[in-house]
Amino acid sequence: MSVAFASDVVGASPTSSPHSSTPDFPEEDPTREALDKWIDAWDAYAATNGYAPMLQGRDPPSVIQFTERDLTLIPALPPDAGASAIAAREALRAQVIHDNSIKSKQRADTLCDHRHRFALLLIVHLRPRAGLRLQRLLSAHIVSGTVGASDALYDGIAMYLELRALRAARMTKPQRDAVRRALADMEQSPLADGCSVQAFSSRARQPLHARHQSVSRPTVRRICALRVHRRADAARSPSSWHVSVDGKRRRLFLSGALLLDVDNAGAVELSRDLNKGG
Predict the structure, then answer these.
(1) How far apart are CA 130 and CA 203, in angstroms?
(2) How many CB atoms lie within 10 A of CB 134?
(3) Superkingdom, according to UniProt (predicted)?
(4) Residue-wise burial string across 79-114, b where 16 or more C-beta atoms lie within 10 A, e elsewhere
(5) By C-alpha distance, which of 203, 234, 231, 238 is closest to 219?
């Protein structure tokens, strides 16, 4: 694919250098800090080079000239209009319809060109460090009708919006992977008194199920928000640990040696302290 026009951006001056204000994407799965810095730089670039309206779902100023004429604005003829007047009005309507058809195509082509130019710029800056992510974006945002073509077109605006949406995610992929590893480690490790997490989960489910009949599975990994706090009397048997449900925040509080907090978005906060009471 040619990227000869990657620097030919909407509204850019002939002497501007996009590479000075559009940094490369940090890596396949960047940290939150690196992602924020990258998005801030590209948002500023988009705002100063004519892409901001498209990112907001509006048309850029460059397509205003292709606004179609409203046929209803053509004045109606009086009842006693002659044949020549009727013919002239019909000819005018036909011309307006023809012009509107041309403007509609010009508008669509111009918007497609703007989107593709932005895609070319993203390609240049994702390829060095995020090739796999780039391929996923290209596959998801190829313009219909150009699939398989040597000169395929891409929707760079949609590509960038998908990248920018990563900022709103509660957790990055490395964080999710770390959480999964921590969960697996905790499930294999005994609690302070030697009781396994799964055994504790089975015991804790019984009083929970008595209050909430819809809960039929073990609580570990199943409750939308689960916290296990070790109490000062954690040496007591698991069967005597207290279980209560806070309906307002949908949290289950259990006495134990773990702290596991899983919210609806999948964000997990983990901590372990086997030496201090909670």
Answers:
(1) 46
(2) 19
(3) Eukaryota
(4) eeeeeeeeeeeeeeeeebeeebeebeeebeebbeeb
(5) 203
Spell out where the chain has E strands. Answer: 226-229, 243-246, 251-255, 258-262, 268-272
| Burial classification of residue 73, based on how many CB atoms lie within 10 Å of its CB (0-12 exposed, 13-18 middle, 19 or more buried) | exposed
Q: pLDDT digits over 163-179, tens only?
A: 999 988 766 677 777 77
Q: Where exactly are the structural domains of the chain? A: 18-168, 173-272
| Paired sense of beta strands 258-262 and 268-272, if any | antiparallel
Q: Which two tokens stand for residue 252?
A: 């289950």
Whole-prediction pTM: 0.57
Residues in the chain, overall count: 278
The token pair that represents 120 in the structure block: 């070319």
Task: Compute the 3-state secondary structure of the chain and give helix, strand, coil in percent, each to the nearest 5.
Answer: 50, 10, 40
In whole angstroms, give the CA distance from residue 103 to residue 109. Answer: 10
